[in-house]
Amino acid sequence: MNLEQKQQIATDTADGIYEAYPNLWERFGDRGYEHTVKDNHHHLDYLETAWELQSEQSFLDYAIWLETVLVSRNVETALIIDNFRRLIEIVPRYTETTQGDFMRGCLDRAVRLLELPPHKRS
Amino acid sequence: MNESTQLSDLFLQGEEEEALKYVQDFLESHSHEQLYGELLTPAMYRIGELWEQNEISVAEEHLATAVCDFVLSATELRNKDKDGRKKAMIFGPEGEEHYIGLKMVAAMFRDEGYDVRYMGPNLPLDSALELAGDWQPDVVALSGALAHRLPVLKTYAEAFSKVDSNPAVLIGGRAVTLSSFADLHVKGAVVVRELGALREWIRTGKGPNDDTLSTG
Question: 10 Å Cβ neighbour count for B26?
């Protein structure tokens, strides 16, 4: 993924989330939307890191860290899961098959991990 | 409240003089390596965790970093004798903004008698390579705080392994300490996961055991 593609994925994903949950505009405003775009760049960076180092676990660690950061800022886990599910649909369109499968696997496992109650995750 | 927590509170309050006094008192009965490993590193990790939990703002995090930077510089040992010394170049790759760990690594190399060029964080590869070509370092030490910096560290390590002076390339920082990278190998580089291992490497050219260092 080049920077232009990442920007496309990040804005498409943020647009999708804000269309699905219009109350986010009231809750977080323009800054919230901008943060969502930026956060999606981070998600993509960490997916690339996981791919380059062949470490799915590193993405799962990131997902848990991300949840700590966002939940403490009033962004609920369900929104992170929704975000990752959107990436599962979009990312493979911008990557070659093996890489897309790997990244989809990371996102899918992260979703399943975040769906578990915290005490059942380790 | 333990010592590193007390110190991190002083950092957060912007209490430069108090923090310096605290560190100077600690150094009465501890080494600089203990200061870095047992006091400053956990204090700054706590600052990071407080930011993660939304307990402190970015501004407070920056203030704490600035105070930590001050006490680190004010208490650093300097070895003035420059003749015939080995040379170490220390910096963070492009995009990396964290630098306190780099400063500690620079201080340890100086303490071990190296001529050190510490060039801070966020240094573009081309410029770093140009300087390495001119200065011919024996060691190039790089660090990354966040996991997504590891691919760029690999790129840098590969590029520096081709520099004429054939420097040893060391990679450290919080990213390499994460459990998901416990078996990380970087071609042409030594992965250093803690300051004790760094000291060991500087003195012997080897890691204390294969679990803490790998030469990939």
Answer: 17
Quick check: A57 contacting B, CB < 8 Å? Answer: yes
User: Are the beta carbons of A49 and B147 separated by less than 8 Å?
Assistant: yes
CB-based contact A48 B52, cutoff 8 Å: no
What is the model's pTM? Answer: 0.87
Are B69 and B43 spatial neighbours (Cβ–Cβ below 8 Å)?
Answer: no
First to last CA, chain B: 41
Helix, strand, or coil (residue B93): strand
Which residue has tokens 């407070």?
B60
pLDDT digits (tens, 9 = 90+) for B160-194: 988 988 999 999 998 888 877 777 778 789 999 98
Asked if the Cβ–Cβ distance from B184 to A53 is below 8 Å, we say yes
CA nearest to A63, candidates A5, A102, A121: A121
CA dist., res. B69 & res. B100, Å (int): 7
Smallest Cβ–Cβ distance between A62 and the set B147, B154, B179 belongs to B147
| Structural tokens at position A38 | 């930026």
